[in-house]
Design a protein that fits this description.
α6 crosses α7. The protein is mainly α. It has two domains: about 60 residues, no CATH class; about 60 residues, no CATH class. The chain contains eight helices and no strands.
């Protein structure tokens, strides 16, 4: 399992953005990351300035969402959907997308559930609870 450090994960995003801006060929994973970044123009200026933002902290007290966490969670969602893991996530995603009328909005709903599940696992010092994650998705798809 690949477990990059915070700086490695951020550097991947910066490098992908720079390769895109310079017209350099991208790997498959970079193309997926670029698609996610392209859907978030509010982060483009941040991605254009790695020297200022690589080590920058984004705390809840600042009142801003951590853009690197947000993009990384999007990448996790893309992987989960591509392999339907946890099993049934594609079905839940399709229901949420149909109800919201937007795949991007639906991915944000999945992202909210994933973030909550990871936060609870971190607080408990345990592995993420797949049943809890799927229950959150079911609640989102029922709306």
């Amino acid at each position: 399992m690949f477990s990059p450090s915070r700086d490695q994960a951020r550097q991947f995003l910066f490098d992908t953005w720079q390769k895109y801006r310079s017209g350099t060929a991208l790997s498959e994973m970079e193309r997926i990351a670029l698609d996610v970044m392209s859907q978030h123009p509010e982060y483009h200026a941040l991605l254009d300035d790695p020297a200022r933002n690589l080590d920058r902290d984004f705390t809840p007290e600042d009142g801003a969402i951590n853009p690197f966490l947000h993009l990384s969670l999007h990448l996790a969602i893309e992987e989960q959907l591509s392999i339907d893991q946890p099993r049934g996530i594609r079905t839940q995603f399709a229901r949420i997308a149909l109800a919201s009328g937007s795949e991007h909005e639906a991915k944000h709903a999945l992202l909210d559930c994933l973030a909550e599940t990871l936060w609870l696992a971190q607080r408990a010092g345990s592995a993420p609870d797949q049943a809890l994650y799927l229950a959150c998705l079911a609640r989102k798809s029922a709306k």
